[in-house]
Amino acid sequence: MFERILVAVDDPESAKQAVKVATELAGRNVEAQVAMLHVIEPPVIFEACPIVPVDDIQEQMRARFEQSLHTLSGDFPKTTRISYFVLEGRPSEQIIGAAIQWNADLIVLADHNRPMISRVLLGSVADAVARRAPCTVLVARKPRVTAKEHAEMKQHLAQVSI
Questions:
Q1: By residue range, what is the domain housing residue 107?
Q2: What is the rounded average pLDDT of the residues 45-69?
Q3: Which of 25, 29, 39, 106 is the most exposed place for a label (fewest CB within 10 A)?
Q4: What is the pLDDT of residues 109-146, one digit of tens each?
Q5: What is the 3-state secondary structure (H, E, C) of the chain?
Q6: What is the pTM of this model?
Q7: Domain with 118 in it: what CATH number?
Q8: How many domains is the chain partitioned into structurally?
């Protein structure tokens, strides 16, 4: 079904659900190709700050995120061709640009389940990508309650019922 899956990740913890979904989809198609993408937002530098070697910090961040992408992609089927990209800029713009340039037919990204006020004030990368993407967008949500927790709550409620 999907042959070119772009997986946009930010921090490794929230990315796990997106990677899990993308891995399952890639496993359904032996022709699937995956692009793992992380976007580094440019640093904000104030004139009052002491001089910091920003280029060194950026390179260290890039190396760390490239390693993280390789680690996260470890569960993809061995037949899956995987590319890795670490870009700089506004995340939504870079994700959309990468999807166009790489010719993705699916973008998978994680939802952070942030409070509504945070999304209003800061914006949501997932919302911006979903509105402007040239292809299908799948926002992978981490379950708020695991199946085990759900069963335990159900059992507890059954015990306290009148």
A1: 4-160
A2: 74
A3: 29
A4: 987 665 555 455 446 888 899 999 999 999 988 766 67
A5: CCCEEEEEECCHHHHHHHHHHHHHHHHCCCCCEEEEEEEECCCCCCCCCCCCCHHHHHHHHHHHHHHHHHHHHHHCCCCCEEEEEEEECCHHHHHHHHHHHHCCCEEEEEECCCCHHHHHHHCCHHHHHHHHCCCEEEEEECCCCCHHHHHHHHHHHHHHCC
A6: 0.78
A7: 3.40.50.620
A8: 1
